[in-house]
């Protein structure tokens, strides 16, 4: 390999003058959350969770930029903020946590769990961690200046022992500054927490020993516990492998490291450019950005004295200044602009580091990262072959300033360069485990304690994966705990397969004697004491009113007739007996209470009630009910009675009433799914019941999920306000039209734009926009083959499933799905086109 004279000279100096790698590490110890360097520098470490700022409204974005700008201007001089982003493929911790959260240990549940885990191992998550190190350096340390960047190649640092007084004073200053920074980021809406000693050491251990820590000796805190008989410094315990420095790489513990350094600042900056920059970096990279706050008066004086204002102004401006600023008067103009805006000056350095097992692999990836810099407002990067070692060291907490290239930047522009953006990671509890569109783990607890109510609405056009996603969501909700139960009221037959697999109760309602649903409970339920349960009585009266005269304005005396008849019907029954609807009809027909007018009305009520006690409706409503309401997964498919609007409406009143005891069990978490039931809610008195349930379900530890194909279905419903306003969670799948109506569901203009750009890859994945109270995220549903077959409603898939069942009637539902998953992992139509991902 040919090397030029400069490299040869550098290698000679390195061999003769540079200290050992161990002495390059500014690490003495970690005590009570404080990093202490041998140079006298000190720092605190934080883990930082970003925000998806581009999904906020334009007003919120402007407000954030203003507040962030103000915050940067308030940073104290000589403070250093050192951001490190560590992105890597694979997140075993999320998989372990998810597996541990599944409490149901049945063979069926474990089969689905293992299928999901295997799928995530084949197509792993991206784990992205953001660390913030707040650092202060000793007073005697020489500050940067605005002369040309330091291109020294010698590392050596002179250590100095701090006196106890100096140490305590520095530590107090560090805690004051870092606590203010922590609180400021929290006020800006970011989640931030200080790292424990063990977490800091683990970061260092894994960075300095990438292969050893993964394959030989994983991190254990006990190896680094302080021992009075072991005087070794932290760096001597961490530096287990000597590095090898070459022109093209920095080799450490079986990994080749290459760094790309920022050599030209962006021509223009905004929040979007930084987000796009990180996206094109890929999944496996390290990024560091260090900002140092110099002495402002001294820095401005140097700018003026050195005539560096032309370059500085080009760096400061959001748009490129193509003219060379050569007149001294423009220096004054620049400084006046800075003074009038209260902008602070910062030294900023940025680099990206990649690593790999081979030189070829590492070189290929670093070239991709080099091209990525153009996406950052047309910035320019350089594979810094002079400084791969120094740039590696810049990822150590106290050594962000090892990067020799630092640019002076105004706070206004710095707002857009900070790595503050990331997808919402989800709820505190893991619940359902999905992916974000960037393959990061997304935790979704449908009963998150922070939600004001647990209700949700879902919108998605035909073919968007709406039924598929709902089946997936319900499957994993039921897998999580035996104390989770689901009731579905459906008009499309989308849940038959899942009910069969989970051995749930599936009721396909039709006007035959195959099904009976008696609306009247046993006596001990209606009369728990001497008096009737007021809620039950009210419900039964409303039910009879709906059957007898749904559009009639019922007077108090007429309602009293119904209440008396109900009480009389139950009078002579045993505690475990229940009347039939026909018994109430007979009591009305032979009503002897009240005056003649009351008796006449009662007789007329009985005649109207015969519609539901005789004929086809009587086959359902006037027989003893045999349906199993104790199943954990219960589906009422009303599709086949859609031509009987009177019966549909009555059943929508009876079904929740029959399930009332289930909902009153506060130990259970219940979900009621109303799929396309807006058709049943238009201009019906059933809306009163649904409205009551929406308003009171929180007290019953229950949630309602309402589903439809387009926004108008909800907006046209009589109780649209109740359904939307009481549903803090919105699931938006791909829509074909009416995106502008999403504003009525609480989405801002940027969220609506994101919802309009969702992707669906049949047989592979579908994207879902989720608004979870005040958080927003674009999720990606990427099911295993087994999950796919449990949820698919595709016509070709269903036909293949029916064929397999005919050929193998001995197969269980699970065996059917497992067979199909092996033969058609992406579905019948898609398997020939793509591999399942």
Automatic annotation (TrEMBL):
Stated name of the protein: TraG P-loop domain-containing protein
Domain TraG P-loop span(s) in chain numbering: 439-800
Signal peptide segment: none
InterPro entries documented for this protein: F-pilin_assembly_TraC (IPR053155), P-loop_NTPase (IPR027417), P-loop_TraG (IPR043964), TraC/Conjuga_ATPase (IPR025955)
SUPFAM superfamilies in the cross-refs: P-loop containing nucleoside triphosphate hydrolases
Gene3D superfamilies: 1.10.8.730, P-loop containing nucleotide triphosphate hydrolases
């Amino acid at each position: 390999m040919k090397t030029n004279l400069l490299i040869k000279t550098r290698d000679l100096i390195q061999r003769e003058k540079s200290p050992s790698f161990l002495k390059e590490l500014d690490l003495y110890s970690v005590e009570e959350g404080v990093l202490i360097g041998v140079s006298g520098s000190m720092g605190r470490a934080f883990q930082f969770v970003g925000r998806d700022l581009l999904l906020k409204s334009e007003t919120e974005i402007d407000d954030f930029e203003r507040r962030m700008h103000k915050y940067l201007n308030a940073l104290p001089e000589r403070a250093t903020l050192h951001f490190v982003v560590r992105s890597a493929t694979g997140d075993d911790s999320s998989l372990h946590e998810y597996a541990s959260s599944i409490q149901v240990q049945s063979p069926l549940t474990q089969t689905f769990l293992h299928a999901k885990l295997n799928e995530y191992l084949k197509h792993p998550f991206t784990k992205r961690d953001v660390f913030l190190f707040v650092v202060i350096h000793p007073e005697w340390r020489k500050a940067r200046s605005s002369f040309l960047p330091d291109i020294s190649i010698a590392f050596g640092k002179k250590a100095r022992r701090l006196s106890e007084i100096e140490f305590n004073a520095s530590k107090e200053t560090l805690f004051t500054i870092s606590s203010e920074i922590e609180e400021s980021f929290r006020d800006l809406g970011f989640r931030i927490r200080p790292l424990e000693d063990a977490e800091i050491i683990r970061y260092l251990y894994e960075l300095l020993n990438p292969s050893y820590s993964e394959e030989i000796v994983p991190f254990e805190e006990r190896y680094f516990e302080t021992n009075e008989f072991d005087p070794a410094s932290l760096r001597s315990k961490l530096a287990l492998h000597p590095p090898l420095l070459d022109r093209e790489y920095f080799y450490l513990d079986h990994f080749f490291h290459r760094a790309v350094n920022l050599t030209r600042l962006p021509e223009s900056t905004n929040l979007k450019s930084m987000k796009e920059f990180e996206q094109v970096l890929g999944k496996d990279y390290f990024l560091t950005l260090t900002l140092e706050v110099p002495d402002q008066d001294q820095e401005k004086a140097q700018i003026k004295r050195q005539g560096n204002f032309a370059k500085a102004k080009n760096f400061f401006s959001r748009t490129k200044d193509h003219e060379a600023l050569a007149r001294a008067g423009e220096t004054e103009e620049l400084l006046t602009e800075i003074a009038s805006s209260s902008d602070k000056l910062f030294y900023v350095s940025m680099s990206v580091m990649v690593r790999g097992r081979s030189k070829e692999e590492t070189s290929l990836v670093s070239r991709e990262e080099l091209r990525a810099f153009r996406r950052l407002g047309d910035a320019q990067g350089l594979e810094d072959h002079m400084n791969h070692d120094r740039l590696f060291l810049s990822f150590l907490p106290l050594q962000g300033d090892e990067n020799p290239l630092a640019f002076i930047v105004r706070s206004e522009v710095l707002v857009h360069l900070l790595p503050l953006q990331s997808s919402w990671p989800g709820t505190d509890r893991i619940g359902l485990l999905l992916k974000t569109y960037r393959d990061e783990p997304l935790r979704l607890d449908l009963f998150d304690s922070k939600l004001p109510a647990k209700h949700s609405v879902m919108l998605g056009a035909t073919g968007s994966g709406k039924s598929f996603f709902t089946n997936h969501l319900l499957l994993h909700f039921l897998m999580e705990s035996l104390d989770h139960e689901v009731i579905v009221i459906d008009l499309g037959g989308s849940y038959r397969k899942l009910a069969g697999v989970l051995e749930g109760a599936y009721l396909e309602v039709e006007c035959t004697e195959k099904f009976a649903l008696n609306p009247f409970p046993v006596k001990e339920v209606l009369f728990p004491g001497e008096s009737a349960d007021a809620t039950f009585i009210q419900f039964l009266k409303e039910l009879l009113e709906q059957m007898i005269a749904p559009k009639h304005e019922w007077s108090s005396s007429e309602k009293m007739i119904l209440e008396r008849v109900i009480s009389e019907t139950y009078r002579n029954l045993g505690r475990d007996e229940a009347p039939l609807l026909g018994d109430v009809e007979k009591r009305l027909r032979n009503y002897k209470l009240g005056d003649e007018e009351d008796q006449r009305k009662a007789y007329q009520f009985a005649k109207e009630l015969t519609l539901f006690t005789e004929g086809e409706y009587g086959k359902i409503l006037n027989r003893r009910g045999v349906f199993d309401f104790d199943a954990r997964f219960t589906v009422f498919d009303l599709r086949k009675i859609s031509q009987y609007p009177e019966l549909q409406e009555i059943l929508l009143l009876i079904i929740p009433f029959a399930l009332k005891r289930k909902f009153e069990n506060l130990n259970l978490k219940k979900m009621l799914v109303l799929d396309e039931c807006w058709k049943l809610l238009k201009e019906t008195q059933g809306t009163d019941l649904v409205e009551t349930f929406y308003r009171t379900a929180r007290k019953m530890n229950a949630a309602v999920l309402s589903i439809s194909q387009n926004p108008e279905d909800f907006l046209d419903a009589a109780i649209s306000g109740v359904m939307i306003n009481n549903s803090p969670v919105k699931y938006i799948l791909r829509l074909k039209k009416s995106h502008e109506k999403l504003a009525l569901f609480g989405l801002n203009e940027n969220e609506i734009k994101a919802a309009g750009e969702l992707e669906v890859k049949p047989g592979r994945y579908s994207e879902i926009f989720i608004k979870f109270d005040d958080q927003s995220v674009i999720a990606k549903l990427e099911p295993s083959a087994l999950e796919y077959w449990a949820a698919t409603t595709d016509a070709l898939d269903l036909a293949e499933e029916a064929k397999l069942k005919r050929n193998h009637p001995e197969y269980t539902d699970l065996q059917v799905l497992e067979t199909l998953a092996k033969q058609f992992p992406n579905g019948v139509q898609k398997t020939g086109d793509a591999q399942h991902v």
